[in-house]
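HOLO CASE FILE
Compound: flavin mononucleotide
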Amino acid sequence: MAKSKFIPLKMYREYSTKTMNKRARDFYLEMKRRRSVRQFSNRPVPLEIIENCIRVAGTAPSGANMQPWHFVVVKDADLKTKIRIAAEEVENEFYHRRAHREQLQVFSDLGTDAHKPFLEEAPYLIVIFARRYYLGSDGEKVKHYYVGESVGIATGLLITAIHHAGLVALTYTPSPMNFLTKILNRPAEEKPFMIVAAGYPAKNAVVPDISKKSLVEIVTFK
Ligand SMILES: Cc1cc2nc3c(=O)[nH]c(=O)nc-3n(C[C@H](O)[C@H](O)[C@H](O)COP(=O)(O)O)c2cc1C
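Model generated. Tokens follow.
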């Protein structure tokens, strides 16, 4: 990698403490309204919104700035059907053979089962791939650093951006997911990481009545 040149930090914006407090609180209140939604409307969403959400994801920090991610935006109905059929095959195997009783209970509490109609209903499936290495100038494999951490952060920013834009999303992780490599024709260095379905919620969408841990439960100040 070429040595970096250094430039002044022009992007930083300083706020008064009062403004910072308000911004932090307002952002918390906005993010508190985010929910994973499993029922989507077929109302179309302009692609430009999704493009900007992916731009947000692309601003994520990453190990050595290697940006080891690739986003495939699926809007084609036939491809979505292929993904649903393949995902349901994997899910059937999981629900009927591999899942433990406790796992089945958790999923039943969340109202999920082996059927994944949202994979066809959502206007967009954003399939995130983690790039494990890149090919150097001599065709040799050069490993990316902290791939899982970096792609996880980028995906978090993507989900945040989708919510901020006024849409809903579902983080979906069928296991195994290698069918996505084949259906989407991705290269060997990429490993499917997650599917984020995005769109408007269905008119009568419901979500499980769950809560988040309080601040004292998730933080220790020293
Ligand atoms: C890594 C990860 C994997 C997930 N996988 C699935 C999934 O396969 N199917 C699903 O319906 N929800 C999935 N979810 C969504 C969670 O069930 C959901 O985030 C959780 O129940 C909390 O609900 P909330 O997102 O509305 O706060 C996943 C979330 C994460 C972060």
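CASE NOTES: The pocket of flavin mononucleotide is lined by residues 35-36, 38, 110, 112, 170-173, 207, 210 (CB under 6 Å). The chain is about 40% helix and 15% strand.
CLOSED: yes
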